[in-house]
Amino acid sequence: MRIGATIFNQNYKDWDRYEAEERGETVSGRAVRSDREIFREEINIARIADESGFDSVWTIEHHFTPYTMVTNPLQYLTYIAGITKRVDLGTMVVVLPWHNPVRVAEDVNMLDSFLGPRRNIICGVGRGLGRREYCGLGIDQNEARGRFDESLQVLNGLLATGKCDFDGEYYKIHGLRLRPQPERDLSANLWCAGGTSETVQIIAKHGVRPLTIPTTSLDLALANMKRYAELRRTAGYKPSHTKLALWTFVAETESEAEAGARRYMVEYADSALRHYELLGTHLRNIKGYESYGAQSDALRNDPTPFRMGFFKSHPWGTPQKTIERAKELAKAFGTDEIMFIFKYGSMPIEVAEKSMRLFAKEVMPALKELNPEPLAA
Question: For residue 353, what are the domain limits?
Fold first, then answer.
């Protein structure tokens, strides 16, 4: 099994100032901790991954809030490509409704040409959930499902052949040819986050393999992946592995690990609640997001299970405890690659690096020996 490291770039301590400014209150115009300082220090996660035997480095896409601050993951990974030598690179995810799919294909193709034959770009894509992001980018979130469906078809075709003829509601493309000309079929490098039943239906129909990023809970994520396996079989495709993102915190002693995991994983969960506005009522009225609306109704009654969910379910602890939990999840999800998040919330970089180096030394070798079966219906 492959092991990756994911760069998040959160400025968690700026949330109170950010939300006060959003409400129209008079606050400082800048975060106490510079966003760019966080950018500079977290690049070292890629260097450590490259030096210590990780298979891949991943990053994500978000806009406008302190939640995460990577606005263009393929641009970010192009820089990472230049400071690393051996790791593959992955996006978790490029949010397709926010982009022209032809431009996404061009950027993937160009980065692939830079990486050469011994390294891969893994293009994870998704539909997006944040209302602030859709509004800030001027895109009607009610159109998200349709835009996503069409974009996925265009992107998949371009990565497979470098050519596109497509006649849809949002994209009409005829006689298109990519340059530089692709030298191989990259469609196998396309993976898609399946956070809702709606998205799962789309990706299973097109045979795109699933990327699991448990924004809400591992239980819900696993239920979606089991549904994906059923739909994939119905569509006539063979069982597929998944790729799975997990939060972790590793320490020499159980008490140190518990203190770190409890603090920083709860902070991460809080940041997700705030960024996605999961305590609001708006999601129930957005086409294709009704399932999130139902979750929000439950969370308003008691958000505590969500805030504690990452701490209670993700792999953390001593190296041995972390191995045991990660093995359980790898088998349950039928995964061929786990992308671990080492720095999140207000965690200092030196704390994240210590956890990551211990993970690389004592956890990663055991996990690389795993070979879980694909997720079958």
Answer: 2-368
